[in-house]
Amino acid sequence: MAKQLAGRPMTVTQIISGDLWAGAEVQVYNLCKALHTSPDIKVTAVVFNPGMLNDRLVELGIPVTLADEHATGPLGIIRAIASHSRTQDTDLIHTHGFKENVLGILGKELGGVHYSIRTVHGNPEHKFSWKKPHKWLASRVDIGLGRLRQQAVIAVSTQLQMALEPQFPGMVHKICNFIDVQELRDAWLPKPSKTSPEIKVGIVGRLVPVKRIDLFITAVHLLNKEGVFCKGVIIGDGPLKSELEELASNLGVKDHIDFLGFIDPAAKEMRALDVLLMTSDHEGLPMTLLEAMALSVPIIAHKTGGIPEILINGECGSLVTDHTSSGYASAVKELLRGNLKHRLVENAFLQVKRSFSTEHNSAHYIHLYKKTVSKEIPLS
User: Fold this and answer.
1) How far is CA 80 from CA 63, 87, 92, in A?
2) Is the peptide bond before 190 cis (omega within 30 degrees of 0)?
3) How many CB atoms lie within 10 A of CB 286?
4) Which of 48, 133, 217, 300 has its CA 20 to 30 A from that of 367?
5) DSSP class of residue 357?
6) Separation CA 102–CA 99 (nearest Å)
7) How far apart are alpha carbons 15 and 78 in whole angstroms?
8) Any residues with CB less than 8 A from the CB of 196 and at least 6 apart, and which?
9) In angstroms, how far is the first alpha carbon of the chain from the final one?
10) Which helix (H) or strand (E) holds 159?
């Protein structure tokens, strides 16, 4: 770690698209915010899109290069990463996402940066197969570059760690996502008083196929049909909005579903929910889940990806294996009976505070950065 012995902190440059404000972007922001307070790390970033992530990193006082992908092509982004790395004296590039991995690795090579790691935030939303050769080839290039020109791969859950190990043998490390639990509670608790006897059942996420908002809407329909009078609250926006509004209308629950759109922070509305549903086909380690646990919101979630690990196989929230609208409706009815809800909420808060706090998990990132640059992890 010769450069640090010269009397300066290690410079780590985060590479991310920043076109959305979703789970990966929130986690990168949380990581940058935590690293920015460390005397051992100077954090910088290259962001591919203007928007909330870029603006928030700038507000923190972090050096950010906006390599706008709409104004420049891949070669321009690669040059911007190289130029940023030389200007900031970057020691290590940290990439987040498929496109970011490829361009980040090429940019680091051009900029003369020796070390790089990636974080995989979730399972691929699309399967790669020979039937779509361009996507299959792109995924092969991503994996090949990662094996050859990066030193470590971070998985945010045990499920992802196991899935990635065959692709990146000996390179995978698990570091879970994290939130500032106390900051969130100080800002958004206590919960607002209820003004309606209706049960508020909510979901947070992009309105895209993988999130299965259709299951959520149909579950609200079934609950009302079966005498559990509830209001469905959808926090998020996306390309399926019109289709989902039509589904609610066709099921006769248009008046029982509130499409609130994108809200920042989602905690403002999420704290008032009686139940949070997570109906995604698959997930990595969702930030929304951690926020709900911190805000003492009862959780019902699909038993997939990193969710069972977070919820300790059902000790901190209800896990659904019947991935249908009736499966989620039944889970809601079960949660509302007896003292189950209170026990799960208490367990969830203790779990998120113990295992998913900023202090606990940001320290693991700093440790891995130092190991990588000190060559304890072999340099490819």
Assistant:
1) 13, 10, 16
2) yes
3) 27
4) 48
5) B
6) 5
7) 11
8) 231
9) 16
10) helix 158-164
Token pair listed for 153: 């791969």
- State the residue for tokens 């629950």: 253
pLDDT truncated to tens, each residue of the chain (380 aa)? 444 446 789 999 999 999 989 889 999 999 999 999 999 999 999 999 999 999 999 999 999 999 999 999 999 999 999 999 999 999 999 999 999 999 999 999 999 999 999 999 987 755 655 666 777 788 889 999 999 999 999 999 999 999 999 999 999 999 999 999 999 999 999 988 888 889 999 999 999 999 999 999 999 999 999 999 999 999 999 999 999 999 999 999 999 999 999 998 999 999 999 999 999 999 888 999 999 999 999 999 999 999 999 999 999 999 999 999 999 999 999 998 878 999 999 999 999 999 998 988 999 999 999 999 987 665 54
- Per 3-state DSSP, the chain is made up of helix, strand and coil in percentages (nearest 5) of 45, 15, 35
What the block records as the tokens of 22 is: 């979703």
As a residue count, the chain comes to: 380
Q: Residue 184: which of 9, 360, 367, 358 has the closest Cα?
A: 358
- Which amino acid is present at 25? E
**258, HSE (Cβ side, Cα atoms, 13 Å):** 18
DSSP state of 312: G
Burial of 158 (0-12, 13-18, 19+ CB in 10 A): middle
Distance in angstroms (rounded) separating the CA atoms of residues 120 and 174: 10
Q: How far apart are CA 167 and CA 161, in angstroms?
A: 10
> Element (H or E) spanning 348, and its range?
helix 340-355
CB count, 10 Å around CB of 227?
A: 7
C-alpha to C-alpha distance for 256 and 225, rounded to whole angstroms = 11
CA distance 26 to 161: 21
Q: Please tell me whether the peptide bond between 169 and the residue prior to it is cis, using omega within 30 degrees of 0.
A: no
